[in-house]
Amino acid sequence: NSMDLPPDKAKLLKQYDDEKKWDIICDQEKVIAKASPSFYLRKLKTYLDPRASRSAKRRRTLGDSKSTQVLRDLEISLRTNNIEWVREFLDEENKGLEVLIDYLTFQLGFLRYDKESLTLGSTENGYASPANCRKSILEMDTPKLKRATKHAAKLHMGEAEDDIHVCIMCLRAIMNNKFGFNMVIEHTQAINSIALSLNHKSLRTKALVLELLAAICLVKGGHQIILSAFDNFKTVCSEPRRFKTLMDYFRDYETFNIDFMVACMQFINIVVHSVDDMNFRVHLQYEFTFLGLDDYLERLRSTESEELKVQISAYLDNVFDVQALMEDSETKSAALEQVAELEEQISRSHELENETMAKLVELETQLELLYKENQELSEFRQQADEELNTLRKAVSQKEEEKRQRESFLEGKIQELESLTGTLPKGSTASSLPGAPASGASSAPAPPPPPMPASAPPPPPPPPPMPGCNAIPVPPPMVPSLKGGFVMPPPPPGSMLAPPDAMTIKRKFQTKYKLPTLNWIALKPNQVRGTVFSELDEDKLYSVIDFTRFEEQFKLGVQGAFPDRGDDINSSKRFKVPEKVTLLEHNRLRNMAISRRKIELATDVVVKAVNNLDLKTVSQDCVDILLRDGSQTTPRQRPTVSMRGRRSPWMP
């Protein structure tokens, strides 16, 4: 902070190592100010004092050195001395900036009159010599100018062009620190004097002036300051349009100077494109377009200077093409009209959609009811799964409970034998209450443990809700060994898989409505790691005849088959609606599911039950028969009750 360096110089200094920084500090301490700020200011004030030319004592204080050398020494001191020396030069006591701007203004007066007199004393190359310029000034009928010329001659003042260039360098040295930069911005006459220095003949001086003006334009509030300075330039130099002199120098240079052209193009970029107001930016852009900038940039496209190409590209990329914007606006209007038409079509489509949605309101209401019931069943199934897992762990750990379960099954078999003995002659096992029908076999489920004598029988399933499709009730709860009831195993396909993910498989669209299964499909993230994730269903589509499959299992009267002689085939079909039954809908549906699980004909099952043949009827089929046969309904009661009986094998 004490060094008061610009951000770029401070960043460069931080990149040095400690040894390099120490060398810089040592070199800075070795720098000794050649003279105090008052020494240079005293000489500049002498040059500005009209009475100094009449005082021999004042002239002796100036010595033999010219004003140009004094200004160069001042520029070196401002650039190399420490920041305290610069602050002393600019403080309220010395007012160095005021003195420097007054001297620059004094010399700009000579430069302006020299420019006006070029036509009176020009040389072959188009430039006026200093002698001719001085002569032309003296010839003008201006007493004040004549006195100033005599004053400059007596005090051995340097040429105006040289002094102006060195003054601009002094201002650049002052603006290299934040304190001096802020003072220059706040000094209106300083900005105006810098802008008027564009009349200097040297292109190097012009480039330096444009760099200072561009730096001022980039700070907050600097853009308006620069525009005001060029308005003053227009008034002083009698320009027909603002920036005309700058564009004349840019287009009609007599000596090619790439640094001046780059600085000029950079300044134009900053002035035009550093404005937030788009309308004002277009206004500034038009000012330079009117002065011939666009045509000249087309000629400069073939330049070999990369820096100049970058500045030209930056200007062209940020140019607002008002005509193109108008065409885009018209195109947008046409697009908006088309959008309005499309919106009207969409509104008509919405009306049709609303009509279609109105037809689906009733179905959505039913779906909501089914969804709630499905949630309740899912919770019930989850609880049953937990209890079932606990029961299976207990069964696997205790061999004694296994023997008790076998004893319980033997007692049930004896009960079935006694029941079949009480049937009238000619009756079959299918006439027994709760007797299962033949059907497809399922995976074997573990038999229930023995029911304690103290446990009451499970309540009958509730009747289906009116107005809803009947949903099969879950199997009855199996009595546990220690009292109470536990849930029987869920139907096949309802076991949850590990919560992993898999790809979504395509659904097969059926032609007819088929019977629904009492299961819940696994989510895709629950199938990974199971056998279902490895199944290739696409191969099955080419193997299975789904057309024949749909014809056999489609719902409705049209799905009935004329051939009903085969018991095995008839067990896979749905019963015709004309058949009269006393069973509830849920019970009838459960019976149909059980018949499909047992892949045996009805006569074979009846014969096996009467003969207690466990080879023909497997243990799983016996469990199904016991489960369905033990249920009770309001219309049908079992003829034999197990309540009050206690098996000798039960604890």
UniProtKB/TrEMBL annotation:
Which residues are the signal sequence here?
A: none
> Which PANTHER family does its entry note?
FORMIN-LIKE PROTEIN (PTHR45857:SF4)
Q: Which Pfam families match?
A: Drf_FH3, Drf_GBD, FH2
List, alphabetically, the InterPro entries matched.
ARM-like, ARM-type_fold, FH2_Formin, FH2_Formin_sf, FH3_dom, FMNL_animal, GBD/FH3_dom, GTPase-bd
Name-wise, this protein is Putative rac1 gtpase effector frl
Q: Which residues cross the membrane?
A: none
GO cellular component, alphabetical, reads:
cytosol
- Biased composition annotated in UniProt, kind: Polar residues: 629-639
Q: Which residues form the FH2 domain?
A: 504-651
Instruction: Show the ranges annotated as biased composition (Pro residues).
Output: 444-467
Molecular-function annotations in GO: actin filament binding; small GTPase binding
Stretches with biased composition (Low complexity): 429-443
Region of interest (Disordered), ranges: 421-467, 629-651
Give the record's family classification. Belongs to the formin homology family.
Could you list the residue ranges forming a coiled coil in this record? Answer: 325-404
What SUPFAM superfamilies does this protein's entry cite? ARM repeat, Formin homology 2 domain (FH2 domain)
Q: Name one GO biological process term.
A: regulation of cell shape
Keyword annotations from UniProtKB, A to Z: Coiled coil
Q: Where's the GBD/FH3 domain?
A: 1-406
